[in-house]
Amino acid sequence: MKVRIKNWTGVASWRWIANDDNCGICRMAFDGCCPDCKLPGDDCPLVWGQCSHCFHMHCIVKWLQSQTVNQQCPMCRQEWKFNNK
Amino acid sequence: MSLKPRRVDFHATWGAIKDTIKGVITLDHVPRSVWNDRFSDVYSLCVAHPEPMADRLYAETKLYLIDHVGKLLSKVQEDGEQNLLKNYFLYWSQYSVGSQYLHSLYLYLNQQHIRTQKLSDAEIIYGSSDSSGGLQILVQFEKSSCNVCKRYTKVLHTLSDIYRYNDNSFNLTKVLLHIKGLQVLALFEKSVCRLCSQCCKILTSLFEICPCSDTICNINKVLIRFKGEQMEIGELALEVWQSGMIAPLGQKLVKLLLEAIDQDRAGQTLSTSIEAVRGTILSFVEVQGYRKKGQLQLYQELFEEHFLDASGEHFKRDAARLLQEKNVSLYMEKVKAKIEEELFRARRFLHVSSLAKVSARCEMHMVAEHLQFLYSECMNMVQGERCKDLSNMYDLLKGIQNAITVLVDTVLDHIKTQGLAAIGNLQGENIHIGFVENLLAVYKKYKKLIQDVFKSDQNFMGALDKACSSVINHRPNQGKSPCRSPELLAKYCDTLLKKSSKGISESEVDEKLAESIIIFKYIDDKDVFQKFYSRMLAKRLIHQQTQSMDAEEAMINRLKQACGYEFTSKLHRMFTDMSVSSDLNNKFNAFLKQDNIDLGINFSIYVLQAGAWPLGQAIVTPFALPQQLEKSVQMFESFYHNRFNGRKLTWLHHLCQAELKLGYLKKPYVVTVQTFQMAILLLFENADKLACREIKDTLQLNPEQFQRHVVSLIESKLLLADTEELTPETVLKLNMEYSNKRTKFRITAAVQKETPHEVEQTMNSVEEDRKMYLQAAIVRIMKSRKVLKHNLLIQEVYAQSKKSFAPSVQLIKKSIESLIDKQYIERTPHSSEEYSYIA
């Protein structure tokens, strides 16, 4: 072998893939964070429902807590279930 | 003897007392027994039956003292003017001590009789509504120029004289009736004189009490208000001295005193001893020492005023004489000495309260009146940095209001000129080092100068700040070119924090970084600095060029201290990503081991959060991954997606790097290259010669990237090209004869340098950020204010953004316009100068 790779240090960046740019609850960008957080990233994650809608985790949890009767997705009114695939 | 009140023969007792007083006041020998007897005599008079004779005793004592001081006065004057001071001082020393003894002799009278009538301290200090009018009204009458007052002074004198000897109220009533007959009251009432109206009040109350009342005590109280209060004997003695001795002699004494001081100034021996001069001057204070308020009044009016005026004249003459030499530094030298000398003199002769006045007067005549003369040399002194002169100048000017500003401004200009000169002609590779270190040298030099010469005066510290900030934010070419300071400073930090900085110990690096904060604080465009700094930090972290993580972190903490949390939050997130990535690497390796997967290479990765890193979006280029890496990349992607739901990974190949082992040469070499270079080299695995077009097509690189990396490989002599210019047809082959002294080396890619293109890009992104920042600030402000005038809005925006950059009004206006377009705010209908928030 003429040339062999000894080490390789890769660099990659990550961003959220969501079907929308903004959180439907707080209207802030998914690249940013929910209004209660200071910094985006691991501390302010996104979550997906089984209805495929996506929100800041803090936002949807707040919303669900404020709902007394049915726990519904604020976008499509289906019953909210976390999509834990 | 008995303490019981009894009948006392006043004349006999007073006769005895009088003899003893004479002995006491002249400091003659008074035997103990005699002293004791007289002490009892005073007591017995005060408590005499049927009527206490304290007032009479007081009046007689006063008369005696007046008589005594009168005699002393003629003695003092006896020896002519040349001995006046000496004699005055002699008798004063005797009298002042004697009067203190006398005070003790009359202890009973003082404490039991006089103090009870006295006003309380509080009344004296804060004044009381009705006592102030009557106090010493007779004395005031004598001085008054009002005709009514003059006419009745005599009557009132009679009144109080009668009081002095009165045994019954009958006489008093008679006098009062007499006054009534003269219709004094009516006259007083008509008069416009303030004194008359006061007197009127008192007389009215007197008339009300008098004819019908047989208690003399009330009348006494009223009368006391006419005569002035009775004083304790010690005070009385001093008061008598003041009116009997200082009043007639005062002017003469002052004249002699001033002459004596002039003699002292001229360096002649004094014709009177220093002690006598000082003693006489201080006697003006001591004679009013019993007063609770205005103790220095006599001293100030009689002596100090004249002294200051005379001194003022002297200073003027002196200044005029010194000015003839036309030498500023010499003049200042002499004036300083003069002030010192005068203060020394004042300390020797005068009361302490005069010290400040003397030096102020001296400064007024010798400095304040000749400011222009002093300023004339100011420029040269500052430019020559003549420390001694500057320090003299500072000492002289600081006492005079606003005089220092000219000096401050001159210093400011000088520092500015020096600063600009220090960074003006920098050239070559290491401009950034020269820039920061020269500036720091200027800063330190003048800071020290200000500390030493100007005693760290706030005015000068302010000037230093202003000068530094204008030097650092200076825009060359009349403000047309952008200011490069943020970039240069960031580069300077980069150089220090990079691995390559050789020969400098860690503590030195730390020190230099700490100092660079000084410059940082003066930078207006802190956001530009942040941009450059974060780009360089990103490069250091990704390319593992960081010298020490501790130093990096310390620097970020310093920036945080200077500029706040928000400023460094992105930098902190970059650090977090580094540690998260190393964690991720460990987990990935564990995962590989568990599943028994061999990637064929040593794989590690940095996963960066897109928003936190200054990566730029445009740089993601098409690239066909070499098959040797495919497995690793795929494995990692699936590993990552399993762990983190909903995240998209983007590979940043231009930032990846590899270590290659070259096995085709005489010696094995280990080279560190970028991914693109690696990919090019890997193609030669199966071929000896490749045309450029082939390489490009296989790797799908864009021409620009391809060009750059091929050139870097040719320049490092790993590849050989058969033509000078690279064309698609150029054939490349491996250099089989390659040799290098080192077996481990790095191909420095052109991309690692900050290209002008990149600088421009940075500036553009700064511009974008600023727009967003301003718009956010405007929305915040308008949201809380609802309606705001244009100018106020601009002011507030400016105040908010000042921390990280100084926005131009134009930029703010643009942001307002774009917010109006986006319908966040609107112009209020009735005024174009006002905006309102649209909720």
Automatic annotation (TrEMBL), chain A:
Read off the Pfam families from this record. zf-ANAPC11
Record-level GO BP terms: anaphase-promoting complex-dependent catabolic process; cell division
Q: Which Gene3D superfamilies match?
A: Zinc/RING finger domain, C3HC4 (zinc finger)
On whether Metal-binding is a keyword of this UniProt record, the answer is yes
UniProt keywords, alphabetically = Cell cycle, Cell division, Metal-binding, Mitosis, Nucleus, Ubl conjugation pathway, Zinc, Zinc-finger
GO MF: cullin family protein binding; ubiquitin protein ligase activity; zinc ion binding
Tell me the route in metabolism or biology where this protein functions.
Protein modification; protein ubiquitination
Subcellular location(s) per record: Nucleus
- Entry keyword annotation includes Cell division: yes
Using the record's annotation, list all stretches that form the RING-type domain. Answer: 34-77
An example GO CC term for this entry is: anaphase-promoting complex
Q: How does it assemble?
A: The mammalian APC/C is composed at least of 14 distinct subunits ANAPC1, ANAPC2, CDC27/APC3, ANAPC4, ANAPC5, CDC16/APC6, ANAPC7, CDC23/APC8, ANAPC10, ANAPC11, CDC26/APC12, ANAPC13, ANAPC15 and ANAPC16 that assemble into a complex of at least 19 chains with a combined molecular mass of around 1.2 MDa; APC/C interacts with FZR1 and FBXO5. Interacts with the cullin domain of ANAPC2. Interacts with UBE2D2.
Protein family (similarity comment):
Belongs to the RING-box family.
Purpose: Together with the cullin protein ANAPC2, constitutes the catalytic component of the anaphase promoting complex/cyclosome (APC/C), a cell cycle-regulated E3 ubiquitin ligase that controls progression through mitosis and the G1 phase of the cell cycle. The APC/C complex acts by mediating ubiquitination and subsequent degradation of target proteins: it mainly mediates the formation of 'Lys-11'-linked polyubiquitin chains and, to a lower extent, the formation of 'Lys-48'- and 'Lys-63'-linked polyubiquitin chains.
What is the protein's given name?
Anaphase-promoting complex subunit 11
From TrEMBL, chain B:
- Gene3D superfamilies, sorted: Cullin Repeats, Ring Box Chain A, domain 5, Winged helix-like DNA-binding domain superfamily/Winged helix DNA-binding domain
Which GO molecular function annotations are given, in alphabetical order? Answer: ubiquitin protein ligase binding
Matches recorded under SUPFAM superfamilies: Cullin homology domain, Cullin repeat-like, Winged helix' DNA-binding domain
The UniProt entry, under PROSITE patterns, shows:
CULLIN_1, CULLIN_2
The entry's cellular-component GO terms read: Cul2-RING ubiquitin ligase complex; nuclear lumen
One Gene Ontology biological process: ubiquitin-dependent protein catabolic process
Which residues are in the Cullin family profile domain? 484-714
Alphabetical list of InterPro entries matching this protein: Cullin (IPR045093), Cullin-like_AB (IPR059120), Cullin_CS (IPR016157), Cullin_homology (IPR016158), Cullin_homology_sf (IPR036317), Cullin_N (IPR001373), Cullin_neddylation_domain (IPR019559), Cullin_repeat-like_dom_sf (IPR016159)
Signal peptide range equals: none
Q: Which UniProt keywords apply?
A: Acetylation, Isopeptide bond, Nucleus, Phosphoprotein, Ubl conjugation, Ubl conjugation pathway
Write out the pathway annotation from the protein's UniProt entry: Protein modification; protein ubiquitination
Per the record, the similarity remark reads: Belongs to the cullin family.
Q: What is this protein called?
A: Cullin-2
Q: Which organism is it from?
A: Acanthoscelides obtectus (Bean weevil)
